[in-house]
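Chain A, query sequence.
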Amino acid sequence: MKRRSLIKAAGGLAAVCALPQLHAQSSAAVAKIIVPFAPGAGSDAMARYFGVELSRATGKQYIVENRTGAGGAVGADFVAKAPPDGNTLLFIASPFTTVAAAGGIPKYDPAQFAPVAIMGAGPLLFVSHSSLPGNDLKEAVAYMKANPGKCNYGSAGPGSINHLVVELLKQRTGTAIVHIPYRGIAFATTDLLAGQLQFMTGSVPALMPYIKDGRIKALALTTKDRVPSVPGVPGMEELGFKDFDVSNYWGLMAPPGTPANVTGELNAAINKLIAQPAVTARLRQDATEPTSLEGPAISSFIAKDLDRWKHLITSTKMQLG
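Chain A, predicted structure.
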């Protein structure tokens, strides 16, 4: 009887001791994709799409968690401090580099993150209210140069891509346009539609409905060339804006110190996904061209984009406070 009791007790103790291990295993079966932007934004929608597709492809559940603030810096800072085990990923878009270049608070260095993937890149749109003279960017810039300080443009805040891409245009053309920062690009879009702003940049899927109903005008893409998914809208080069080529991008980064084998497995899974026709079609629906970069190429892509915006900020002595 004593022996049976001891065996029973030992079995119970083993079960109790096994609980933490079982909990750890179940936790490892779920990963988070941190989206540093508000629910419903273009980045949020794309992150959720890839979360579902990655879950299907790997058998591991990827859930999206929004951690907003400071143009994306809050979410980036959270992931920078997360365990480097591949279970917490940061969904990135162009603000990942523009906000870092602008010295967003909390500060973070894009180079410290472990690269996972760049899923695609594509243009933003230069748009104007229907009342602004000019049917393309060249004509609109000519009007704004002739009327310095009379036109306003909105952005998602200092250091956002919507801010810096117009500042780059101003630098290249000598155009004086007044910057009105907002707490999100959706608020700026509302004022553009109301005619309180005359000019703006934004994503293709967010702005295209208003272009189609004639409430705003598509002036140009921010990229060098046209793209098939946005017919009728010129690229920068054909309008005479040389060496102007700005893309938005979608990607994933892991916390600093994440092992290369972990990021490598994720990279392979995502690149395999991107090659699927349905995923390619979903990206192109948002005027995004699929990419299949690997670790060093991702780091180089991010570094070049960061350097471009840092140079713009320092060369123009831009005030970001």
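Residues 123-239 form a domain with the D-Maltodextrin-Binding Protein; domain 2 fold (CATH 3.40.190.10). The chain has two domains: 28-122+248-315, 123-239.
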